[in-house]
Amino acid sequence: MDFQLFKVETFIPEEYVNELRFELNKVGALTVDEKYDNCMSTSRVKGSWRPLEGTNPYLGEVGEICEAEEIKVEFTCKKEVIRKAIEVIKEVHPYEVPVINVIPVMTNYF
């Protein structure tokens, strides 16, 4: 199956959301049907992680479980800009290893 549209999810500290929106929109990742831009959703979530030896965590201490409020950012993105969108997330995101979920979307299944 050749997917043309993808849903992208990432979890980021709230203070980075506006910068992420601006940079994603700049590369066309938040444009829908060439009629709207800046299209994304956000929701508050509570994340948890434990940094292991050799890491340099943005938040938390090595070996200890850390919990913090994050913002889940979701948007749909065309195939042509998906790589740029992932690059932007990695550039803006403060975490060493940000979670970036890329999910193919079926649009013509009826």
What does this structure look like?
The chain is elongated and about 45 Å long. Helix 1 runs antiparallel to helix 2. The chain has a single domain, classed as Alpha-Beta Plaits. The two termini are 15 Å apart. The longest helix is centred in the C-terminal third of the chain and has 11 residues. Strands 2-3-1-4 form a 4-stranded antiparallel sheet, covered by helices on one side. The chain is α+β, with helices and mostly antiparallel strands and 110 residues long. The chain is built from 2 helices and 4 strands, in the order E-H-E-E-H-E. It comes from Clostridium colicanis DSM 13634. Keywords: Hydrolase.
Task: Describe how the helices and strands are arranged.
Elements: E1 5-12, H1 17-26, E2 41-49, E3 66-78, H2 82-92, E4 100-105
